[in-house]
Design goal:
The protein has 12 helices and 9 strands. It is α/β, with parallel strands linked by helices. It folds into 2 domains: 44 residues, no CATH class; 239 residues, Rossmann fold. Strands 1-4-5-3-6-2-7-8-9 form a 9-stranded mixed sheet, sandwiched between helices. It is globular, with a radius of gyration of 22 Å.
Length: 298
């Protein structure tokens, strides 16, 4: 069967299935020039190309909100605070890059945000969770926080999900679905994906085709879900270097007065393949002009 006959047959199948097609008509006679409407190549190629829709999680976890509040996190009902305003300033350019906004073009995979640091102890997990909580306050977006630090698993421990299956299980067990390991929370519009069962080949798993396919699926629905990845420190874990090139945005957390300049420069050099890299100065004693955290783009 020739290309034109295949296209005609495919259009008939789509029409029977209730899919609106941009044009219709009988196939050209045999030997006629292989001309086709300009709309043919695009719509026919794109039909079925989008990954499967996202499904709501099947399980719910109750977050330790009182403990999180005592540790300085932006829990619901805590009231307006300086920290809340800081994260409002931090998230605006990230959201603009994710979904497109005035002054911001929508970046490819922009709804996939990786939070990392040069070294351990710079506060990247604190930033990741607070950013996710702040983003969940937005009216229009849902947020998925992913613990992508398979060694320390700080977010999983902090949220009481350290023993739950999660990201690594999803990537290594073909029969497991995202909605089976993603956890709904009692924080409106916030879900959580734990790190999962420790794996010796965690770096290879996070750089696998399965991971790429998962990210493609999440990135295909930016209007449904902003995804924040709590990733390991770049200079201490190869997993972060495997993840970074697959992200739309990377935020490098730098601890004020503590992180050596050379470590920051080295970390930034490892992110050269990433389309958009920003830095966030954490625990600054002197407030920056716009925010005490000092948020700058590179």
């Amino acid at each position: 069967m020739g290309t034109i006959e295949q296209a005609s047959q495919r259009l008939q199948e789509l029409s029977r299935a209730g899919v609106e097609v941009p044009w219709s008509g009988a196939a050209p006679a045999a030997g006629a020039p292989a001309e086709q409407p300009a709309a043919l190549a695009g719509p026919l190629r794109d039909v079925g190309a989008r990954p499967a829709p996202l499904i709501d999680p099947r399980q719910t976890i109750e977050l330790p909100l009182k403990q999180l509040a005592a540790e300085g996190f932006l829990v619901p009902g805590a009231g307006r605070s300086r920290l809340m305003d800081e994260f409002r300033a931090i998230k605006r350019p990230l959201l603009g890059n994710a979904v497109g906004a005035k002054g911001h073009a929508r970046e490819e995979r922009g709804n996939l945000m990786m939070i990392t640091s040069s070294l351990p102890g710079e506060g990247k997990s604190f930033i990741a969770l607070n950013l996710a909580l702040s983003l969940a306050m937005e009216v229009d977006y849902r947020v998925l926080l992913v613990d992508a630090d398979p060694t320390r698993r700080m977010s999983s421990v902090r949220l009481g999900a350290a023993e739950r299956p999660g990201l690594l299980d999803l990537l290594t067990q073909p029969k497991l679905a995202l909605e089976e390991v993603e956890l709904a929370t009692h924080v409106d519009k916030l879900t959580f994906l734990p790190a999962g069962t420790p794996q010796e080949l965690a770096t290879e798993v996070l750089g696998s085709r399965e991971m790429h396919a998962l990210l493609d699926r999440l990135a295909a629905y930016p209007e449904q879900r902003i995804v924040v990845f709590d990733a390991p420190p770049l200079l201490h874990a190869a997993e972060a270097r495997a993840l970074a090139p697959q992200m739309g945005q990377v935020v490098l957390v730098v601890k004020a007065g503590a992180t050596p300049r050379g470590s920051v420069q080295h970390a930034l050099s490892l992110l050269h393949e990433c389309p958009l890299v920003m830095t966030l100065l954490n625990q600054a004693r002197t407030p920056a002009e716009s925010s005490p955290y000092g948020y700058y783009a590179y």
